[in-house]
Structures are given as C-alpha cells and as structure tokens.
C-alpha cells in the first residue's frame, strides 16, 4: 500500500467561492485619499460593498492607516483585480 504525504504548509488554503465576509486589509498613507480609493475600487469590483462597514485604524504615530473591508468574494479573478488595482497607487503600501 502506498500512502501519499501532503505537506499542508506548501499548499495555499482552499477557498470556496462565493465566499461571504472575505476580509481584505489595505494599508497605506493616512488620510481621506486612501479611504476614497478603497471605496472607489471596492465599489466597482465588489457588488454589495457597504462603505459604512469598513474598519479604519490609525498607526500609533498617525502616519499610516489600515482599512479592513469584508466582501463577498466571487472568485480569484475578482480578488486579483482588486489587489492589482489597489497596489498601483503610491499611497497604498500593502494589501493582504
């Protein structure tokens, strides 16, 4: 009998789509431009996005902000588009 060992650390987690309440965190320069960018990008690519449900946190010195958004992820193409579009802007430092 042959058994196959799977190294779960090397495999990305499996996500079933649609995935409700999928969290995405955007970190960038603090200020209104970051918030408006997040609202614009998610408004175009995440049907049902509610800006009032965003969580905004300032860094200890107030230089940066993290904005957490929960969306209904419809598939990898949607997520890739959101990540790529956000990362194109210089005010965005990281998207996770």
Automatic annotation (TrEMBL):
One of its GO terms (cellular component) is cytosol. InterPro entries: UPF0250_YbeD-like, YbeD-like_sf. It comes from the Bacteria. HAMAP family: UPF0250. Belongs to the UPF0250 family. This is UPF0250 protein GCM10007877_26350.
């Amino acid at each position: 009998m042959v058994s196959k060992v799977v190294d779960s650390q090397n495999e990305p987690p499996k996500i079933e789509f649609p995935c409700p309440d999928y969290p995405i965190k955007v970190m960038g320069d603090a200020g209104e431009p970051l918030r408006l960018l997040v609202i614009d990008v998610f408004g175009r690519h995440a049907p049902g996005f509610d800006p009032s449900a965003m969580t905004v946190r300032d860094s200890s010195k107030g230089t940066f902000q993290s904005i957490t958004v929960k969306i209904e992820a419809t598939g990898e193409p949607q997520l890739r588009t959101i990540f790529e579009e956000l990362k194109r802007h210089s005010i965005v430092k990281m998207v996770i």
